[in-house]
Structures
1.
Amino acid sequence: MKATGHDWAAWLKILDKAGAKKMSHQEITEVASRNGAGMWWSQMVTVTYEQKRGLREVHQQSDGFTSNVSRTVAAPLDALYSAFAKWLKKQKATVRKANANKSMRITWPDDTSVEANFYAKGDEKSSVAVQHSKLASAAAVKEKKTYWAGVLDGLKKDVES
């Protein structure tokens, strides 16, 4: 990777030599930083290292697993945001914070966390990205991806019609 000065094979060797298998995530990022990775890249190097060495599963974060789904819709931003907000009122979820036409922070009934971010893609096009985090397992990630894909596909169909 040009951005870090080392390819993946070199990073694995550097981190293994430093004893990263027994380090915390933060400690590994510090080693990556000392070896030429900038702040963002040190996180990327660390997560990839943890995954390659079996210390972290794909989609695993420090507080559980995270699922992401997004959709682009042929409708104005306010129409998409309103449709999502209307759908959400029918759920047993708690909106912690909402910024109209921008974002929502939601506590799901199972105490997991949902973030919905909305983006204008022009006057008649917009998108929504949903991140569901604090999930218990990789299996839950798959389940939530399927769930949110269905929700967003339904909203897309409703808003575009």
2.
Amino acid sequence: MIAHLDIIQGTEEWHRIKWQKIGGTRAHGLLVPSDTLLDELLAEFCEPYEHEDGFLSEDMLRGMDLESNAREALSKYIDIELITCGWLQSEECELLGISPDGISADFKVSAEIKCFARKMHTSTCRIDEIPTKHIRQSIQYFTVTPQLETHYFCAFRPEHIKPLFVKKLTRDSIVDIGLKEKVKVKRPDAKGVLKDYVETIPMMRTVQFWVDLNLAEAKKIESQIKDELIKLSF
């Protein structure tokens, strides 16, 4: 892993280093049965860099304002100093990287920080789980950073009765990333006779399991991009 500690998130240099990369947000496209992520990346490889200003909602702007306070609060909570870093670049696959919201100096601890609106923050605290739509972003930290041992997902809302929500992940943590699998089960029918049935249940696996799959998928996309570029050049 290569750490770009000197790059400031949100700057032109930061946007450039994220170009043609799968960062935390794009990690949602891995393990999805479509070519959406491939087409998105390939389009960037086909043209020169262009900075496109993305939409920033009020919640996103609020999050940017509160992130430093949240990082400080989390650092105190886990008793580990978390520093800022513009970009962590994977050395196993050039497509992969992450912009950490917080990272320890030895790169063994990381943090993903969210500053949700009132309803989402309350729901997250009540369910006491990382929201499914954010779990893949947290897994990306482990995919990019081999040294990483512990990751904290943090939801911060200072005006809330529970201002700080923290959930710890390790490579052995069992998580649900939203995928389903079919399993055979035996259940008695109306007459009490055991019969085989097929049920669809959440695909619960370790973080490391998903890390390995993500890395394999990213390398596959990397190879596809090279092949497509050769075809498009003729």
3.
Amino acid sequence: MALSEDLVLKLKSKDLYITTVESCTGGGLAYYITNIPGTSDVMKDSFVTYSNEAKIALGVSAEIIKKYTVYSEETAQAMAEVGLKQSVCADISVGITGSISRADPNNPNSIPGTVYFAIKSKNKIISKTLNISAERRFEVKQKIIKEVLQTILEFLNC
């Protein structure tokens, strides 16, 4: 929770709003952020797009998913871009997609433990690929969220 608190304080100090577009983390990043008092000063919305259809309905191009697959940095970037467009006021958006503990029968290229995320502001975007393993899904999600929170803080410091 310390990283979440640091993030909320950093966003407040910069007068910025954040949104998340999450798939494999199922809203976990938003959950961690919103556990900090005062989060409403920096976050107004969040999106869970657990299926390909949900990503497309929110605005991710079906062509990007078809060309690069749902498990790719390109899809994570598209999710982050859509988050900025669909949010009521976000300055920063985070897109997260990946396969956590089993191969996805709907997406044949899925590799369990491989996660992609992107962070986008109006002027820049970064993306990363993580390879994370743990015995339980909850532990994998926690590791992903910790890495994403650290990267958002680095992103804000640049």
4.
Amino acid sequence: MSENSPKVSMILLGPPGSGKGTQAEKLKSYFEIPHISTGDMLREALRDGTELGLKAAGFMRSGKLVPDELVVELVGERLGKDDCSKGFILDGFPRNIFQAEGLEKIFGSSEEMVFSAVSLDVDEDIIVNRLSSRRVCEGCGAVYNTKLNPPKDDLRCDRCGGKIVQREDDREVTIRKRLQVYRDETSPIKEFYREKGILREVPGDGDVEEVFERILGALGDDRC
């Protein structure tokens, strides 16, 4: 991406198992802009010992959710860094209308910052099938898929010989509950951006490259 390339700023939406993380990394490389997830942002603020990071740490240590107002401030702090000068990919933010409105206020006076909200849409049964097929090694954390990438021995890890297990989060009942929570949280966000004319809904089924090309096509010539 050249110095004269337009800014590319996007919010990436997608339920668990939609392939959002994989696509975010591909978009990061393609556009040469940072991929900023809420979790990574909080960890970075804590590591750097910023004032806002220390405030967030107090809530996290007590097992409480970081308040929306503080999350918005942390996002503003992160987006003010030099590596975001060409744009950024936000992952896991905003989670509600308050945060979405807060994001607009961060760049309210910056006309050159234009957002796209890209939603990866995948049928729930496909997601359940994807996630319920996942297995993890208790020893080294290696990840397998019983249909696409199974271990040679159903019970033991190819890498370290550790026990292969299915995490509670990857059981069908739990997955469907997580998807319901996502729908409840995200539906208002999608409608918020649809009304603004910047929502790009992309089918998330298919192989990685196919979905990536769909995203680029949905972003169009301006890509931002």
